[in-house]
Amino acid sequence: MGAESSRAFLSKEDLEFLKARTEFDEQTICDYYKGFLSDCPTGKLSPAEFCQIYSKCFPAGNAREFCDHVFRTFDTDKNGFVDFKEFLLALDVNSSGSPEEKLNWAFSMYDLDGNGHIDLSEMTKLVSSIYKMIGGTDQAEILGETPEDRAEAIFD
User: Using one digit for the tens of pLDDT, what is the confidence trace for 74-87?
Assistant: First the structure.
């Protein structure tokens, strides 16, 4: 998937693939494609570009670590880039997917080593990255728990 190069229009094959596997109609897919190419003219989103875009949603915090986790989950072919198909498939799961699909997607983000289990260390890393993204240490004070405490509470 991620090896696809940039082109002004989505191929008929890619369009049909996305129509069959997402809830988006043809016009919406084409609109998203134009926006994707506007933000990423090469047609391949690097981790740095992904984080730059994603961080705009969390200007008060440091989204770098969390971006790495989300990027890894978007990059389904693990080639180090997110192409338009990977991007749209992830967007579809998160916006229109069934609860089970959303849960599977989230699980794959939390399962850092891909072994099919989420352990305390993985949970702590994810919770810590979320705290940093939404404002860092202020969150620990507001919530009354550190990322480590929060991760442990999830396992209790």
Answer: 999 999 999 999 99
